[in-house]
Amino acid sequence: MNKLRTALAAAAAAALGFAALATAPAQAAAQPAFLAASQMPPSPTPWTATQVFTGVPENGGVLCAPYKIPAQNTRYREFSTELDTNGVQVTTVARTEADAVKLVDTLRGALTACGPLLEQQNPGLQAVSASHGKLAVEEGAWVYSLDTADPQIGISDIHLFSVGRDGRTVTLVRWGQMGDLKDAHLTAFRTTTKTAVNKLH
Question: Which of 3, 10, 68, 160 lies most in the core, judged by the most C-beta atoms within 10 Å?
Fold first, then answer.
């Protein structure tokens, strides 16, 4: 289960379908802004944030979607606390707005199917994906959760995801910690998502 949790924390957001929709060079423009550590959901210990890196997270593998993540036109920032809480924001600028719409659809489909896929890949694991609706911000943002548990060792993890778009720019935000959906700061995560999308441009 520790191996699965590591994969979820390091690869989930980076591997949910950023396919070759963003491979063409973006027009020269100001880079999209990222969340600050203080804009993540509340935590008993302060959040810290890395610098913004070019490309995708180094440990980004294939999780919940059979796509490789193109580094071109994609950047990310990782977040963590002193407790077992972490997060990441991955932002990409698509070649056209139509490509950005397709990318959002791809990510939403991958998040919806994530739980059943993980159960298939990990016998004995219980994984439930759920949709938590659309947010009215720019061209829209959608929130999802992934609740995983391994009954054999008694460990459970909860992850919240969101996908939002502003024009050609798409951002995915993930928050995760030990626990269940009831332990997640869902309302605060919605606020974080709105902030992330509003900061893109």
Answer: 160
Where residue 91 falls among pLDDT bands split at 50, 70, 90? very high
Helix (H) or strand (E) run with residue 11 in it: helix 2-11
Packed helices 97-112 and 114-121: angle between N→C axes, nearest 10 degrees: 50
**In terms of C-beta density within 10 A (0-12 exposed, 13-18 middle, 19 or more buried), how is residue 138 classed?**
middle
pTM summary value = 0.85
**Alpha carbon distances (Å) from 188 to 7, 11, 61, 88:** 24, 23, 28, 16
Tokens at 43, concatenated? 């935590």
Residue 36 — φ and ψ, nearest 5°?
-90, 160
Q: Are 143 and 161 in contact (CB under 8 A)?
A: yes
